[in-house]
């Protein structure tokens, strides 16, 4: 297909036209951004600075916090700036860049949750072999694999989009660049592209989601006869992971596993999917993990003591 672009920038219609709702959303997003983003960075610092937090679980938790912190820079900063302007625009190149990193980091996090589920399965169901299977080299290989998988997923999205011609209109009914809204503006029949996008994003997301739920169901089935202490710890761990899975995959399934049509809830779901939930995910893990909380308290106490001397 020969590309024939006359569109050099896109205009966002935004989250809402109501000034009151815009102000409320601005305050909500800004509050989350300045409070929880530093919290995620603190999680990373805590895990890297505490020699007792060397287990694969904490290694992957630190990477989850890094991915979520990075992911929060893709949409939220420009969204907050756009609240100041009546006309909200982004260049064609900027839009493609935003889309690339949105899917690159989003898919990377999705694959990381799969890796964390595998780690918990080995730890709970095969504890005697855990140290052998989940050694440091294996952890690094799995981390590399999820980054490569995220890149491959994202580059396919971008490759399909950049081949489409855009000759106007250029209004995106959203507050950021994503595949469903961009496809609607193409000056050609996009039926095949729609199917490819659903397969690449929607089907992959749904399969990972079902696989994760199945793996945690197997874990719970395996520990049903364990001691009370072991069973409670497994239940706590699995509950935390399942919460994150629903927060991550629920909105993604809603957005990407159906034909690209507009629903009233789309923007609200997208707001939580791209801005709110990514900042909350590591916090939820931390609040339910006694070892990390204890390490964070020790780190704070050390800084207070050093600062007082």
Description:
There is one protein chain. By secondary structure, the chain is mainly α. The chain is 75% helix and 3% strand. A three-stranded mixed sheet has the order 2-1-3. Helix 2 (56-82) packs antiparallel against helix 3 (92-125). The mean pLDDT is 84.
Salient structural properties:
mainly alpha; 309 residues; 3% strand; 3 strands
Topology:
Elements: E1 9-12, H1 19-49, H2 56-82, E2 88-91, H3 92-125, H4 130-133, H5 136-162, E3 171-172, H6 179-184, H7 191-222, H8 228-256, H9 266-287, H10 290-308
Parallel strand pairs: 1-3
Antiparallel strand pairs: 1-2
H/E series: EHHEHHHEHHHHH
Structural class: mainly alpha
Instruction: Indicate the overall shape.
Output: globular
Overall average pLDDT: 84
Write a short abstract of this structure.
This protein is mainly alpha-helical and 309 residues long. The chain has helices spanning 19-49, 56-82, 92-125, 130-133, 136-162, 179-184, 191-222, 228-256, 266-287, 290-308; strands spanning 9-12, 88-91, 171-172.
